[in-house]
Amino acid sequence: MVETRRNPTNRGRQPVAAVPDDEDILERMTDAPEPKTPMRSVETDKHEHDENEDEDNAGEGSSSLRERLLNTPSKERFQELARQYKQLEQKCQGLKDEVTVLLAERVDFDLVIKNLEIERDEAIAHRDLAIRDRGDLAFRLLNRSNSSGAPIVEAIANRNNHEANVDVNIHSPREARRKR
Asked: CA-CA-CA-CA torsion for 169, 174, 175, 180, nearest 10 degrees?
């Protein structure tokens, strides 16, 4: 089998480019149109015209310029368009400012919602504690009524002792102040 031999492509030297002859350059150059030669637009080059149309429109370049001139807005129309553009830019800037304000308000609302959720969770926890305390108190009253002594006085004393223990379990300083 014959092994193929690879030539390294890049060894720090660039290959020498072939220098074109002066004659080749002259052949490749395009001739610039003479000043009196009418220019065709891209649109007219795409569409082939009938011979009759070409004869009727001998000065086709000038007619396309006339059409362009007629299609060009007048000075007043241009000023009106410029004024409308400025108004749209101002309206766009106003809308961007409103978006910025709404985003700032959204951040504030998110903070308020977060605080309200925390307070709601604390209120639910306190409600659960109150329900449990009420159940404990009812259970103690039933148990004390079967034993001797004054059940109401003992239940109130036990409740005060239990509240002292609950204050230790409260996580919010605001709620601790409410209990006191």
From this structure: 100
CB 64 within 8 A of CB 44: yes
Domain range spanning residue 165?
63-179
CB 62 within 8 A of CB 78: no
Q: Does residue 36 sit within a domain? A: no
The pTM score is 0.35
Distances (CA, A) of 106 to 110, 112, 118, 161: 6, 10, 18, 46
CA 29 to chain centre: 51
Query: 35 in a domain, yes or no?
Result: no
Q: Is residue 113 part of a domain?
A: yes
**pLDDT of 77-118, one tens digit each?**
889 999 999 999 999 999 999 999 999 999 999 999 999 999
